[in-house]
Amino acid sequence: MTLVDVAKNQVVKISALPLDETLSALLLEQGFCLRTEVALAHKAPFNGPLAYRLHNTKISLQRSVAEQIKVSVS
Q1: Please, are residues 7 and 74 in contact by the beta-carbon 8 Å criterion?
Q2: Model's pTM, two decimal places?
Q3: What are the DSSP calls for 8-67, one per residue?
Q4: Which residues form the Ferrous iron transporter FeoA-like domain (predicted)?
Q5: What sign does the dihedral 23-29-30-34 (CA atoms) show?
Q6: Residue 74: is its pLDDT beyond 90?
C-alpha cells in the first residue's frame, strides 16, 4: 500500500521511502521519516497534489512522489 491508496483521515505509518536517495533526503527534511504517522487531509481534483497531515502540519505531495512511499495501517 502506498500514500496514494490512503483514504481521507485514515492514519497510517510510513514503512519505506523511495529508492531515489535525493528524493528520500528531501522527504526526510519535510518530516516523512520511517514509522511516522501520516493521514490524508485533502485530495486536489483532476489528479492534482495530495495534502497530508504529519507532525501537526500539512504538507502537499505530487501523486508521483506519494506513489513511491510505502505505508502500513497502524
Answers
A1: no
A2: 0.92
A3: BT-EEEEEE--S-HHHHHHHHHHT--TT-EEEEEEE-TTT--EEEEETTEEEEE-HHHHT
A4: 1-73
A5: positive
A6: no
- Distances, alpha carbon 6 to alpha carbons 14, 16, 61, 66, in Å: 11, 15, 13, 10
User: What is the number of residues in the chain?
Assistant: 74
C-alpha cell at 40: 490524508
Structural contact between residues 67 and 6, judged by C-beta atoms closer than 8 angstroms: no
What is the end-to-end Cα distance of the chain in Å, rounded?
A: 12
What's the rounded Cα separation, in Å, for the pair 29 and 5? 23
b/e 16-53 (16+ beta carbons within 10 angstroms → b): ebbeeeeebeebeeeebeeeeebbbbeeeeeeebbebb
